[in-house]
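Figure S4 source data
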Amino acid sequence: MLKEWLLILFASGWLISILLLILLYDNKIKGIYLQNNNKEVLVATPETLEHKRRMFKHKDIQPVLAIMQYDNLLEVFKTMEEENKPYILGTLERNLSEWANSLDGYLSRTGEGNYLLFLTEWGYKQAEKTRFSILDKTREIEMGNDLPITISLGIGIREDNINELGRLAQSALDIALDRGGDQVVVKTPTNIKFYGGKSISIERRTKIKARATADALKNMIFKASQVIVMGHEMADFDSLGASFGIAKAANDLGKKVFIVIDDYNQATDHILAIYPQKTYPGMLVRARDVESKVVKKTLLIIVDTHKPSLLPNQRILSLVSQIVIIDHHRRGEEFIGDARLVYLETYASSTSELVTELLQYLGEQVEIGKAEATALLAGITVDTKHFMIQTGVRTFEAASYLRSMGADPAVVHKMLNDDIYTVVKKAEVLRNVRILYGKIALGVYREKSHDAQLMAAKTADAMLNIASISASFVIWPHHEGVAVSARSNGEINVQTIMEELGGGGHLNVAAAKLEESLEEVEKRLLLQIEAQFHT
């Protein structure tokens, strides 16, 4: 029993606190006997020590680790005069240091624009109360820069093991960057939270990553026995355009290809109509039948989503040899974890834009035709609302390339025209639209049909044409419950609202799918909209 007790003599009383802090983490210590120079004896029995440990773990002194990175310093510096750069750097450093000090944290610079911040649970709670004000303070800096500076933070919390705490923080930062930056991602061993994300992702002008991704994709296709291409369920023009573009590339590289079709809708019918008959004999396969097509060394390429729950067939994930993800949506908590290659670029207008860039680097063997080019252009056109939103230089470069490969804008325009049935159904929703806070339009599409998603999306787009409306939401039924289509002109971040409902997307375009009634979903959506206007 004596061996289980620890005797330590200290010359000064303040060291006792440090020792207790260390020993409370060491479960091997059964009891403590302490004595300072004033002969005051403190004894911790096994029972009281265990009680102290339990109390300690619930106090606000648990460690928290934040990894921070400026998202776009290089891009910002290209837009400003050389003499202003030192002032920018000094201001950034001072703001970060003052913010860290206000949280009783320790800030360490690890590289150009990279930092580590050590703090306690108390400091984290202070930062959370202000919804991480450092995001806004950084973005508001104006010293001759044309672009706003943004910062991303990955935070690991509520993990006693320091090594695991670091892994949580790094994983959180990776997610923040995948989502476009200008935000904080907080990760615990069992949960994840998002803060910020107010800015539209800044377009990266370099195409080095696109070239490297194309090389890796080409090698994976060569090594595969066959390729299966799959988009999200209830496929839209972007998902279909990207699918047919990748399928053509794999076919040109000599591989057997299958394109997974969830269900035939207006978008599917329009895309297939531009192909000559028997262009893809046996290539289209229903989602329910695709498992029977899997053989050894099958490569699965997923486009326009990264969430397992949005796939028309999730079981195939465990059957294929390798998985590739090509997507432009901001990364959420749910993610396909076994992907060998991930090309997720939130700056892009659409997945069709990303696929168009990749096609240009896959070599001379790959030559897309007029039909594929038109399908890809349709995907870009729809997601940019006819090149009005989320459109950068590379978007127009992709469109120009597709035009040179035979894409027909007139055919795309005809695809997107509404028939009389669509016009009438949109009018029914618009007639009963509710205006909230003077700038949000909320409508409900009640008819359950295979075109409900497309109808809801088009109605949400139409609502943005109403004067003073900054965001629109349409609730609609689908085969597994209820969904919400959300649109914004950029003033309101609809992505964060949809994430609270379990969905995601972009600042301008987002959606969510729920297994509840129309009335229940409407109540939840109203609560989230209210929260958006009271934070």
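Figure S5 source data
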Amino acid sequence: MRPRTATPVGRRPWPTRATVADRHQRSPTCKAGSVSLTDERYGAAMDRALTLARTAGEQGEVPVGAVVLAPDGRILAEAANAREAEHDPTAHAEVRALRAAGAALGRSHLDGCTLVVTLEPCTMCAGAIQLARLATVVLGAWEPRTGACGSVRDILRDPRANHRVEVRAGLRAAESEALLRSFFAERR
């Protein structure tokens, strides 16, 4: 077993935005930068996710919103973070949206569905996304500390997994980042 080395002083222990974007440009299953506001299917869903995130932030929750789209593009489910309100560490927007979509369809596998989320999912959420067998995740901002769709970990596209998920990144990233920055600035 290789010994773990410490992060040098003054060096960030997580990748910079440029490093993450470079890595994703080379990835065969990531369309980093390919998602635009002109794509109505994703743009409208991200509008809704951002609205949910704003509402969550106003209620003291970390401002993250998620929307699950059916293969035909209609909204199946939506949710915002509710960890504080529900006293539940698993009440992330992504998990709550997946639960609601599964209930709406009457099954746990969401084959062909897409998750549109304002922030890159964490390890727990990425695991749930993989188990739900989503086809695609469209994310707004990268999460450079706990992200699990490519910035810190890459659970959704791990070649050892029996299901891989396409990741599209950067849709309305500036708005998502601004929401988070504002939320945490008010609390620190």
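Confidence is low (pLDDT under 50) at residues 1-16, 23-38. The two ends are 39 Å apart (CA to CA).
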